[in-house]
Design brief:
- By secondary structure, the chain is α+β, with helices and mostly antiparallel strands.
- The strands form 3 sheets. Strands 3, 4, 5, 6, 7 and 13 form a 6-stranded antiparallel beta sheet that branches. A 6-stranded mixed beta sheet has the order 11-12-8-10-9-14, with helices on one face. Strands 1-2 form a two-stranded antiparallel ribbon.
- Helices cover 26% and strands 20% of the residues.
- The protein has helices spanning 35-53, 106-114, 148-164, 191-208, 259-264, 276-284, and strands at 26-28, 33-34, 57-62, 72-74, 86-91, 97-102, 117-122, 135-142, 170-173, 179-184, 213-214, 226-229, 239-240, 255-256.
- It contains 6 helices and 14 strands.
- The structure holds adenosine-5'-triphosphate and manganese (II) ion (2 copies).
- One manganese (II) ion binds next to strand 8.
- This is DNA ligase (ATP).
Length: 301
């Protein structure tokens, strides 16, 4: 008898009370993972994921027909989640107010999945105080052709430079090609101060090592370099959240790692939804207990 190998255990019919329709629909042609597999993954990581996802304006990458088909970025609550997903009113640049999505529980998380969500992206500020960032993210974007060793090295160099400024930082593999260096903040500064710091810091690093880095988003500036994408740190920008699946070829996962682990990592995206058991053990264990936690104010630069 041939038993099909499934990436994760068979999903509950109704994880967190949410009926998942079309559970056998293939979402990832790369490995055959289905909507049911995705729902089972998110149901299992809900607890550790909500520590990062909860109380935060979020944007969703939704691909209702699967990841190779039409996908879209959803920032606002268009009223299509049946009241199962929370929201927070946020003032827009033009002075109007829009409701942003906030996912605070397993039911909200699985409702998003039922609606075709693959990726979860978060603001750098909590929903309870959207004008005061609690997290800075340096998104390291390597030029095509640069190997992961260069990215790894860059992340560690940023850690050391941030450390010289008294800032603790933590690495997350994005599940794509790069690494995000996450700096927790105490929320004592506003977006203007945080963006200004991210801009100055990234430009200073790029000026010191122009052969390796650019702080300019133009693709032509990236040739053989790593783009230090500091633009994640402006009001309204997002970064992919820990434990989010990525809408890539394989269902890779954005995952917190330690600095020691990163130093030994051979490839950019070591985890997929098939590794959920390992991700859960890691999230519960001692290695990642302090990941992303530091009560620190942004210094002046
Ligand atoms: P990789 O490591 O492959 O670069 P990534 O998640 O860092 O993966 P980026 O393209 O560098 O991908 O984007 C960084 C972040 O910017 C994303 O995590 C996402 O939150 C945000 N972002 C990307 N594309 C868009 C978009 N079209 N609209 C709004 N925000 C986006
Ligand atoms: Mn990136
Ligand atoms: Mn980027």
């Amino acid at each position: 008898e041939v038993v099909a190998e499934r990436p994760v255990k068979a999903p509950d019919a109704k994880p967190f009370g949410v009926a998942i329709t079309h559970p056998d629909r293939v979402v990832f042609a790369g490995d055959g993972s289905t909507k049911g597999d995705l729902a089972a993954y998110y149901a299992q990581v809900a607890e550790p994921m909500l520590a990062w996802l909860g109380n935060r304006p979020v944007s969703l990458v939704r691909c209702p027909q699967g990841r190779g088909k039409h996908c879209f970025f959803q920032k606002h609550d268009a009223g299509n989640f049946g009241g199962k997903v929370g929201h927070v009113p946020i003032r827009e640049k033009d002075g109007s107010t829009e409701d942003y999505l906030v996912v605070d529980d397993g039911e909200g998380l699985l409702t998003c999945v039922q609606m075709g969500t693959i990726e979860f992206h978060g603001w750098g500020a909590p929903a309870s105080d959207v004008e005061h960032p609690d997290r800075l993210v340096f998104d390291l974007d390597p030029d095509e052709g640069l190997d992961f060793a260069a990215v790894r090295h860059a992340a560690i160099e940023l850690r050391d430079l941030l450390g010289e400024l008294g800032l603790a930082s933590f690495p997350m593999v994005s599940g794509g090609k790069g690494v995000h260096v996450v700096v927790p903040l105490d929320g004592s500064r506003d977006w203007v101060a945080v963006k200004d710091f991210a801009d100055r810091f990234s430009r200073a690093v790029a000026q010191a090592h122009p052969e390796r880095y650019t702080a300019n988003m133009r693709k032509s500036e990236r040739k053989g370099r790593i783009f230090l994408d500091w633009l994640r740190n402006q009001r309204g920008a997002t970064a992919v959240l820990p434990y989010s699946v990525r809408a890539r070829e394989r269902p890779s996962v954005a995952a917190p790692v330690t600095w020691d682990e990163l130093a030994a990592l051979e490839q950019a995206a070591p985890y997929t939804i098939a590794d959920v058991a390992e991700l859960l053990v890691r999230a519960d264990g001692a290695v990642l207990r302090d990941w992303g936690r530091a009560d620190q104010a942004l210094p002046d630069l």
